[in-house]
Design brief:
Ubiquitin-like (UB roll), Creatine Kinase, Chain A, domain 2, 3 domains, nine-stranded mixed sheet, globular, Gln-synt_C
Length: 729
């Protein structure tokens, strides 16, 4: 970039007026958030107010899966939602779906239709507003133009979006004061194959519920008819000024800087984390929250993250399928609001080298339709046998299918973050904390739980403790039963597991799908083991339960690790335990096709063999394309920007030395001479590295399929870093 362009961008950032948005008012005061929440959502309450009771009751039975959604009910719902939406300025509707691109897709259709009427024997065409049940239920986008892994071809383009009745419809702002009705949908091919992220999420949720309910019934719980995964996604991101962003082709094209050194002051003073949110950023986040509240997204927290210009927003947990919708809505809304504030939001996991990157911590648990959290240990987990069974089933799932979980968080962008002493490595392990570890160890060893009450011991007292900070004016502080291990990829945090390894840029759908699948299989195994253990008895005894729990504690023990996952010692220890350390994306993606993993997904009905293979090929193809885009961007920047600037600077130094010689000065010891010598060497290094990059791009472009991804992973990643290091020098 030119010096003048950078100066102009900096001047623009300081001279630009801030943007303000009026918060909704009630009697001259800002409205409570609860009064704003969900106003743009077509909720069940709203539907109940607009439909006849009999039609509404029929619809509720249909969305619970107890009967098929019939045409009259669909027509009634379509009419009700059209009137509601148009009364709020809607002109168009769209089936909003999640293709395998990591983002969402939509095609807008107007409510307008034409109707022919006859009046006095004269035919006349009249414009009317209409929205039928069939239009609500499905639409038809082009299936061949989305990633399909070879399942669809251009001459088999038909695909369908189908309304997901479990996720509420909502309104978003359109142009010129209008709005658009969004219909959350799944996306399938003409033959019914899943082409999206949501279909498989709904499938995984259903099989998980069936398995969990069966185990609950065995334990005597006849009330719970459904179990669902809950999810809360902590979304990290960077916000930078748009004027400066526009000067960086690497940021614009790839989402990260491909060259550039860290500034003298970055995060080394540890003063940004939880610091005061900059006023301009706070204004943007507040406006984003307002939009999200209206959409029914329960955003709870906002704060500065570790790296400069890095922030986080996190919601209250919800049912996983809705939580995924809301996370994608959060990302899209952040993007739109940032534009309004002349900012740019960066979701790339590692946009800037030398400072922390961003993750998407997926807080996952299991809940019944009676409101019980199945992973709540309560104060005495050693006697909470239901909790113990679901806990060991989850640990068993992570132990048996850690490769699947590693595949779920693999991407070209997240590869920069994993194992970088800011995120978990490619080794999947679980953290429980001292309390639960002691409980499991005591069961395994068939002894009583130790009560660690001595303050000098580095353990927590079973049943929880309180902290005394020796300040009389402070209240008693309760300490949680588990600590937080920020280095663990799968950490238990009170009443849930935090899957910390997911990347900030990706949809949380695939990690949750594969976690649900693995846990479903283990719950089924635990249930079968418990049935066998109890024998002819109506219900299993406590001894029966503990016998089964003890087996699964022992066989999943290798996955439990309480120490520093960033350390070299853990890498060695994990190898001794037989835990895979998967460092590259192609190796991670191949875990999907491993016999035990493929059998799991196919046998549960979450993916067909064709769907599984297509997803593998899509992931491999995207990985290769991402790296080739980065390589071509860096090639252009070096050849058209860096080297010409170096040549120009070298000419300035040469001209200076020529001038000194013309004056009869001895320039052999001149500072320009030593600088010119160094610059010449560095420039030659960059030129050579760029030539290597160009040759690699040409060679890899000539490859096809999985070979291209493998070559890009082994060659381009190394060459890109080499070019950067030489350029930065």
């Amino acid at each position: 970039m030119s010096q003048a362009a950078r100066i102009a961008a900096l001047q623009d950032t300081t001279a630009r007026p801030g943007r303000t948005v009026e918060w909704p008012q009630v009697n001259g005061s800002p409205a409570y958030v609860s009064k704003t929440f969900g106003v743009n959502v077509f909720s069940l309450k709203t539907l109940a107010e607009t439909l006849p009771k009999s039609v509404y009751a029929r619809f509720i039975q249909q969305i619970k899966g107890r009967q098929t959604l019939d045409r009259p009910t669909a027509d009634a719902v379509a009419h009700a939602v059209r009137v509601w939406a148009q009364d709020r300025g809607a002109t168009h509707f769209t089936h909003w779906f999640q293709p395998q691109t990591g983002t969402t897709a939509e095609k807008h259709d107007c409510f307008l239709t034409m109707k022919t009427v006859f009046s006095g024997g004269i035919e006349e065409t009249t414009a009317i507003d209409a929205f039928s049940g069939s239009q609500l239920l499905q639409s038809e986008p082009d299936a061949s133009s989305f990633p399909n892994g070879g399942m669809r071809t251009t001459f088999e383009a038909r695909g369908y979006t189908i309304w997901d009745t479990t996720s509420p419809m909502f309104l978003r702002k359109g142009p010129h004061g209008t709005s658009i009705l969004y219909i959350p949908s799944v996306f399938i091919s003409y033959n019914g194959e899943a082409l999206d992220e949501k279909t498989i999420l709904l499938r995984s949720s259903e099989v998980l519920s069936n398995a969990a309910v069966k185990l609950l019934n065995l334990l005597g719980d006849k009330e719970s008819k459904r179990v669902y995964a809950t999810l809360g996604t902590e979304q990290e991101f960077f916000l930078i000024d748009r004027s400066l962003y526009n000067l960086r082709p690497d940021l614009k094209i790839t989402g990260r800087t491909l060259l550039g050194v860290v500034p003298p002051k970055h995060q080394q003073l540890e003063d940004h984390y939880f610091g005061q949110i900059p006023s301009r950023v706070l204004a943007a986040l507040s406006e984003c929250e307002l939009d999200l509240y209206k959409l029914g997204v329960p955003i709870k927290t906002r704060h500065n993250e570790v790296a400069p210009n890095q922030f986080e927003m996190a919601p209250i947990f919800e049912e996983a399928s809705v939580a995924v919708d809301h996370n994608l809505l959060t990302m899209e809304t952040l993007h739109q609001v940032a534009h309004r504030h002349k900012l740019k939001v960066l979701f790339h996991e590692k946009p800037f080298k030398g400072v922390n990157g961003s993750g998407k911590h997926c807080n996952w648990s299991l809940s019944t339709d009676q409101g019980d959290n199945l992973l709540d240990p309560t104060l005495k987990p050693e006697t909470n046998y239901r909790f113990l069974l679901f806990l060991v089933a989850t640990l068993d799932a992570v132990h048996k299918h850690g490769g699947l979980l590693r595949a779920s968080i693999a991407s070209a962008s997240n590869e920069h973050r994993l194992g970088a002493n800011e995120a978990p490595p490619g080794i999947v392990s679980a953290f429980l904390g001292d309390h639960l570890n002691e409980v499991l160890n005591s069961i395994e060893e068939n002894r009583s739980v130790r009560n660690f009450s001595q303050p000098h011991l580095q353990t927590v007292k079973v049943g929880g403790t309180v902290l005394d900070v020796k300040v009389s004016t402070l209240p008693t502080i309760a300490r949680d039963l588990t600590d937080r291990n920020r280095t663990s990829p799968f950490a238990f945090t009170g009443n849930k597991f935090e899957f910390r390894a997911a990347g900030s840029k990706q949809s949380p759908s695939l990690p949750i799908v594969l976690l649900n699948a693995a846990v479903t299989a283990s719950i089924t195994e635990v249930t079968e083991a418990l049935i066998k253990q109890k024998g002819a008895k109506a219900e299993p005894s406590i001894d029966d339960i503990l016998s089964v729990v003890r087996v699964y504690i022992t066989q999943s023990k290798n996955i439990r690790f309480e120490g520093n996952n960033y350390s070299d010692e853990w890498v060695k220890e994990a190898e001794k335990r037989g835990l895979p350390n998967i460092r590259s994306c192609p190796v991670a993606f191949r875990q999907l096709l491993e016999a035990k993993n493929a059998s799991l997904l196919i046998s549960l009905g979450i993916l067909t063999d064709g769907e599984l293979k297509s997803r593998f090929h899509i992931l491999m193809e995207k990985y290769a394309k991402d790296l080739l885009i980065e390589a071509n961007t860096l090639k252009t920047m070096v050849l058209q920007g860096v080297l010409p600037a170096a040549f120009s600077y070298r000419k300035e130094l040469t001209d200076s030395l020529v001038g000194q010689k013309a004056l009869g000065l001895d320039f052999s010891a001149s500072p320009e001479k030593s600088l010119l010598d160094l610059l010449t060497k560095l420039t030659a290094d960059v030129q050579a590295a760029a030539n290597t990059l160009v040759a690699a791009i040409d060679r890899i472009n000539g490859l096809e399929g999985d070979e291209q991804a493998d070559a890009a992973g082994t060659e381009l990643t190394v060459i890109l870093e080499d070019v950067r290091s030489k350029t930065d020098a």
